[in-house]
Design goal:
single chain, mainly beta, six-stranded antiparallel beta sheet, three-stranded antiparallel beta sheet
């Protein structure tokens, strides 16, 4: 069987908004990557940006900072399962780990789960990925 095409994904990361005596600050992240199924492991690679907007009496800041690229290899036996969610809304691939540390270092991974959003046009790739992971 030919190797699976990598699945392009976005990771939803909650923003951080703060209001105080020093002004108003908003931080948001945009993280995108590729998920590769390499037989005995899943390989996540990602990059992105961090946007900072700050307004105070004496200062206005609006900057975009690149994030360090990341790579994470997870043995396939550490994955308990994969499923698709929100196919009629925001499509996502949800992965559940057998070990808490399986997704360490991957942004927005929590409690052994990670949600990867993908474009509807990549639904075929996502379905093939779920099928292979769950075998």
């Amino acid at each position: 069987m030919p190797p699976l095409e990598p699945l392009p994904f976005r990771i939803p990361v909650p923003g951080d908004d703060r209001v105080g005596l020093g002004g108003v600050q908003s931080i948001s992240w945009k993280i995108e990557g590729l998920l590769h199924h390499e037989g005995d492991r899943l390989v996540f690679e990602w990059g992105g940006t961090r946007s900072v907007q700050k307004v105070s009496l004496g200062e206005t800041v609006d900057r975009v900072e690149p994030l360090e690229p990341g790579v994470l290899e997870v043995p396939i036996e550490w994955i308990a399962g994969a499923r698709l969610k929100g196919l009629f809304g925001r499509a996502a691939l949800v992965l559940r780990a057998r070990r808490l540390e399986a997704f360490d270092g991957l942004p927005a991974a929590a409690g052994g789960d990670v949600k990867l959003r993908f474009r509807r046009g990549d639904l075929g790739i996502a379905r093939a990925m779920v099928r292979e992971i769950n075998q």
